[in-house]
Fold Acetyl esterase/lipase.
Amino acid sequence: MSGRTPIEAAKARMEATFARWTRETTLAEMRADFDAALGGAEAPPSRPVEVAGMPGAWFGPEPDPASGQGAILYIHGGGYQVGSIRSHRGLMHRLATAAGLPLLAFDYRLAPEHRHPAALDDCLAAWRWLLAQGHAPGRVALAGDSAGAALALATMLRAKREGEALPGAAALLSPWLDLEATGESLVTRAGLDPMTPREKLLAMARIYLGRGGDPRDPLASPIHGDFAGLPPTVVHVGDHEAILSDSETFAARARAAGVEVTLEVWPEMIHHFQIFPELPEAGRSLARIGAFLHDRIG
């Protein structure tokens, strides 16, 4: 429809995708729809690689750990049930380009076939694999969007708990950190964002955790984590996001724990708006995040 702003067009595209899903829609069909809706026709250059037994891909410059070059380990979002390298390849390519750094992506296991902590186990395995390739932990950044941002944060919390090395920086895009969905913005931003209505979040959380899963486990809901000792972190979130409170609460608690946190709230933007290449704000956000990562680890 003519006359739509870029953000209105992006919202309409996602609403149309979700409207096609019924009780008869299979999970495989949903995953294919999600990949197509977000990945679109973008096919940026990438280099396939096996990451700890998982399908993976490098974006951006060739990795060269022997030179001391930095690298980004990126964890895609998708509510723990959808999403892949394909759905996020454009976003990951643009972030690698903005940072001037190689970016490693991988396809972790998804629910409901594999419930918590399978995805987190895979993320920790990818972190360990990257370090085994010779990358110094302080020259690596963990990054992710939505559920992937939660996995990035949970990976750091678990590595810290197990006495392992932490990355030199982190970038969280629209992080979904509270599986109980208790944030105030779920009320104040209700109806503004088609991606994250509260009932949808709670349904995805139940599927991810399974029967008896604890939504207050810090490795499932990292909002409850002990953030002391975590690296400098940048957080970008849209002001229209229903889960805006997750970012604000994390930033406040992490700063209280002594973590350097840069939080940017983007007016009128929706959940993981950076994935929509047509949005001018997406390009500006990735440029700022890329500059932060380049400064910290590049």
Notes: The CA atoms of residues 11 and 55 lie 30 Å apart.
